[in-house]
Amino acid sequence: MGACLLFIICAGLMVSDRGAGLTGVAFSGDTNVRIALATGQQSVSVAIMKGKYTLRDPDTGNLIESLSEGQSVRLSPSGAGLGIKRDGADSAFTGVRAFFEPGNPAEDLITYSSRSYRGVLTIENKGGALNVINTIDVDLYLLGVLPLEMGMSSAPSEALKAQAVVSRSFALNKKTNSGSYDMAAGTGDQMYGGFSAERAHTSAAVEATKGQVILYDGEVIRAFFSSNSGGYTEDAENVWNEALPYAKAIESPFDSAAMEAAQDANGYPALSYQWQVRYTLKELNERIRVWNSDNPDNRINIGDIRSINAGSYMFDPDSRKITDRQNKSGRVTRLDLIGSVGSCSLYKQNIRSFLGLRSALFTVEPEGGVSVMNGAGVTVMLNNSIRESFGIIADGIASAINPGSDSYYVMTANGAVEMKKDAASVVSAYVFNGRGYGHGVGLSQWGAIGMANKGIDYGQIIEYYYNQNKNDGRLAIRDIR
User: Shortest CA distance to 337 belongs to which of 370, 381, 374?
Assistant: First the structure.
């Protein structure tokens, strides 16, 4: 019999599983951010949609090409440098990166992969493959973020303003002086669609909050957010590792606004608040196979799955170990998988990854099976049929349960009840009844919409989710320009 312990801290999280890098930072004053639009590309084609651009070597400042509206360039790796093709003519550039610099960063537009972008576009040869990076002022960046993060036209303006301040804080906290870029244009950080995604109503929210960020004790916070916290947000340490004073669990009854909104054909947004997933044991075994293929260094070696148990426990941020104390939100932080040849425990974000669930806020309901109280006083599901199980009789000897009969008897408050041995005596499936969408730390986007619908302004929304309505002065919204 073998057992394994899997515990990986997931990075980053519309859905927003935004994750790693949990410390606040003092802001340096530079409001440009670098966004990776793509990495590991073997060729990159760009076209000038509007205005004039120069293609330059950022390390020397030397001019490579001058480009006008309608012209296009294709770049590919060439040794450690770049191969450049324009108008059918090939040229080589020995620098590791080149950037397309607009004459007017706020107005000129460049197109890559069917989307147009403001700002500077850098093409970098990184180990023989190309990274595509958009360097842009944070407020221009947000014009392409808000429509993808909270872009529905029915979203109230105060919720959009809250998201603008949250997204700006998130972005500026992620700024770093190392590496090639600060963030990626996806759910691991923030969804970003450039100029092509911009919408008037979301741009108005960016303009109304221009330059504003969330400070806690004078530092820009890592402003976590998710689509829907399912009625209760979560402590950061129960999702990642570090405890943060502004990332604490609080009730979020406003999340039910998702149930009241107009629904699409798939049941969204109601399914962001309440959902159900059913897996047969066969399907759970297939999920183990897929997990092992994707995680060869952290395999689940338990044979065929027989049963699962879920627990909602707090994590100690100092010891980084699970405790026996229940967490406030009810999110599952430990999932025990019991199989034919061993057992395994999954923790935190790995639970969602393994099960493919919208959030970790769920209960588990077995279909079929018999539960018994073991010698330690813990109720567990039998792994075998009643026909294959044994009980301890009065003289201490293990004996088959009511041998020779198709029935057995259970003593209840109403006396002995006859049970059929073959009536679903083994679990055949598990139903996961859940709430929420995302990790649940920080702002709930649907909660913000629900609060705004009740007339609550964006400053109060931010105070609620990032300072649990303490109003103690430690959290502030400031214009950093």
Answer: 381
Separation of first and last alpha carbons in the chain: 61
| Reported confidence tier of residue 91, pLDDT bands at 50, 70, 90 | confident
CA gap 205, 162 in Å, rounded = 9
Question: Considering the domain boundaries, does residue 111 fall inside one?
Answer: yes
In a domain, 92, yes or no: yes
pLDDT band at 413 (very low <50, low <70, confident <90, very high): low
Distance between CA atoms of residues 75 and 142, nearest Å: 28
Radius of gyration of the chain (CA): 27
Nearest partner of 101 among 59, 132, 57, judged by Cα: 57
Share of the chain above pLDDT 70, in %: 85
User: Which tokens sit at 240?
Assistant: 């990642």
Q: Would 440 be classed as within a structural domain?
A: no
Greatest CA separation found in the chain? 94
The alpha carbon dihedral of 319, 324, 325, 329 has a sign of positive
| Cβ–Cβ < 8 Å for 101, 111 | no
236 and 22 in contact (C-beta within 8 Å)? Answer: yes
Question: pTM of this prediction?
Answer: 0.85
d(CA 13, CA 31): 23
Cα separations in angstroms, 61 against 57, 119, 458: 5, 17, 43
Domain around 58: 32-138
Q: For residue 467, which phi and psi values (nearest 5 degrees)?
A: -140, 15
Helix ranges (DSSP H) in 49-187: 138-143, 146-150, 157-173
70 in a domain, yes or no?
Answer: yes
Query: What phi and psi values does residue 294 have, to the nearest 5 degrees?
Result: -85, -20
DSSP secondary structure of 21-41: ----B---S--EEEEEEEEEE
The structure tokens listed for 187 are: 């759910």
Peptide bond preceding 269 in cis form (omega within 30 of 0): yes
Instruction: Look at residue 3 in the predicted model and tell me its pLDDT.
Output: 37
One-letter amino acid of 128: G
Tell me how many domains the chain contains. Answer: 1
Residue 321 in tokens: 């170990």
Ranges of beta strands (E only) in 296-393 are 305-311, 313-316, 321-326, 334-339, 342-347, 362-367, 371-373, 379-381, 390-392
Count of other CB atoms within 10 angstroms of residue 453: 17
